[in-house]
Amino acid sequence: MDTKAAFELSGLDAIGQARLVASGDVTATELLDAALTRLDSARGLNAVIHDLFDRGRRQAAELDASGRLRGGASGPLAGVPYLLKDLGASVGGAPESMGSRALRSRIAPQNAWIVDRYLSAGLVVFGKTNTPEWGNHCTTEPSLFGPTVNPWSPDVTPGGSSGGSAAAVAAGVVPAASGGDGTGSIRVPASCCGLVGLKPRRARTSFAPAGHLLEGLAVEHALTRTVRDSAALLDAVTGPDPGDPYSAAPPPMPFLQAIAQQPAPQRIVISTGSPFPGPATDPEIVAAVEAAGRLLADLGHRVEPGAPTVDPDAVADAIAVLHNVSNAQLHALATDHLGRPPAEDEFEASTWVMVREGFTTTGVQYAGAIETVHAETRRFVASMAAHDVLLAPTLLTPPPPYATLDQPRGTTRAFFDVEFATTGWTALANVTGWAAISLPLGMTSAGPPIGVQLMAPEETVLLQLAAQLEEAAPWAGRRPAGWVAAAAR
Fold first, then answer.
1. With contact defined as beta carbons under 8 Å apart, do 306 and 270 qualify?
2. pLDDT for residue 208 is more than 80
3. What pLDDT is stored for residue 293 in this prediction?
4. What class of enzyme is it (predicted)?
5. Could you tell me the CA-to-CA distances from 65 to 27, 68, 69 in Å, in that order?
6. Per-residue pLDDT tens for 96-121?
7. Count H helices, E strands: the chain?
8. Which pLDDT does position 73 carry in this prediction?
């Protein structure tokens, strides 16, 4: 495949690329070579920090030789090149540094369950993407690998913690890449980079061989450019692993099938403010959310102003405690890896604050944080009883500049106060376990995109609404200045 064809493929989503392979127009190896050509042109983004080219070539060659890809019988994603976030999506025998200097030489001992599901779906894994240390930040600028560049603007963050994946997808290197979300880490980069970012409901995907992360706040999925790719990827990884501590009820039908159906009229509450104290939402963000509300009303849904209720102080305190304990676990992992306790300068400054507070967090405090999460979930759900869906900003501001969302603030709680003044509602989906999706429905006057967020107890209605909005207000034709095909000309 020549270079021109490799860049032309950047405009196809994952399902579109897989159909080319299934029809015999290209091979999985040719798709991979095209993705490698695009990645080479986009190295300046610093999105991919571990190359797994040889394993990708072996996998693509095996798929081509097996005949699995002939006749379109092996699924909607088979043969598509895919990138994995360097946190959570472990590949046995491959580097997994998790953005941490203390883990820079770590090799993952085994595949994560979700990676095995990706491989079973025929996705061709060929690299790991940049992430902040331990996923602590809603920006991607770890000192170990340096910042990832937002393809829309080099002056603003691509978001985090799945920022490397978001930048690679937004630039057209790959049509989709994996992500994880603990307080907004899929949806924030989706908003910053103009992508579809779905956080599934709690336990929709498994963290096996681990149990769960952040007491159920975290869940894994992907960054995509189209709704159908997000649905197909979720179909590929839906379901529990035997022995999981809990699991989500199976969806009524495959998600890719569900988005072909119109949802019943939904009762949608729209909130342009924030559940946390802080500055007012940027007017351009407010306008984008209100425009989405009008569009949903035109599509037959009932949209009215309001907001669910939570105790913002209690929520922020609980999230801080859970992160402190999680970072103490990181310290233990690094100690085991290094054979000695890591030094302070082997962690980010903000991580070190969380580690130190984690050392002094008591069992009573930890149990209290879990109880608070459950209590605030009940409060939130009770206040949503008259509505099916929450419509809100993904970010309360345009994408912020670098060195904004990763700085130490003296305490973990103060760190999250700054984050939540920018991210607003995102953490509430993690606390409640609800599904949430960010859609690129607006643009700032300065150029970067605006994400608008929908939240509901389950994914099906969100994906159906997203498909309606995608058809009514298409975003697929928008291209950032850092789009790989533009750079190639």
1. yes
2. yes
3. 98
4. hydrolase
5. 10, 8, 9
6. 999 999 999 999 999 999 999 999 99
7. 17, 11
8. 42
Q: Give me the percent of the chain exceeding a pLDDT of 70.
A: 98
This prediction has a pTM of 0.97
Which residue bears the tokens 């490799």?
6
Q: pLDDT digit string (tens) for 389-425?
A: 999 999 999 999 999 999 999 999 999 999 999 999 9
In angstroms, the CA 489 to CA 478 distance is: 17
Which among 443, 14, 370 is positioned nearest to 216, based on CA atoms? 370
> Encoding tokens for residue 35?
């993705």
Asked if residues 449 and 478 have their Cβ atoms less than 8 Å apart, the reply is: yes
Rounded-to-integer distance, Cα 59 and Cα 252, Å: 33
Q: Which residues are catalytic?
A: 85, 161, 185
Rounded distance between C-alpha atoms, residue 190 and residue 184, angstroms? 10
Q: Residues 197, 187: contact at Cβ < 8 Å? A: yes
Given a contact cutoff of 8 angstroms between Cβ atoms, the answer to whether 171 and 482 are in contact is: yes
* Structure tokens given for 6: 């490799």
Stretch 442-465: mean pLDDT? 97
Collapse the DSSP code of 474 into the 3-class scheme (helix H, G, I; strand E, B; otherwise coil) and give the result. coil
Angle 337-144-222 from CA coordinates, rounded to 5°: 90
Distance between CA atoms of 465 and 459, rounded to whole angstroms?
10
What is the Cα–Cα distance from 405 to 159, expressed in whole angstroms? 9
Other residues' Cβ atoms within 10 Å of the Cβ of residue 392: 28
Q: Residue 177's beta-bridge partner residues? A: 83, 223
**Predicted confidence (pLDDT) at residue 243 exceeds the cutoff of 80:** yes
User: What contacts 305, CB < 8 A, 6 or more positions away?
Assistant: 269, 270, 271
SS3 helix, strand, coil % of the chain, rounded to 5? 45, 15, 40
Q: What percent of the chain has pLDDT over 90?
A: 95
Q: Which residue has 């949903």 as its token pair? A: 296
List beta partners, residue 438: 197, 453
pLDDT mean over 272-301 = 97
Q: Tell me the domains of the chain and their CATH numbers.
A: 3-488 (3.90.1300.10)
Sheet holding 267-270, edge to edge: 48-51, 124-129, 81-85, 176-181, 219-224, 196-199, 435-443, 449-456, 389-393, 267-270, 302-305
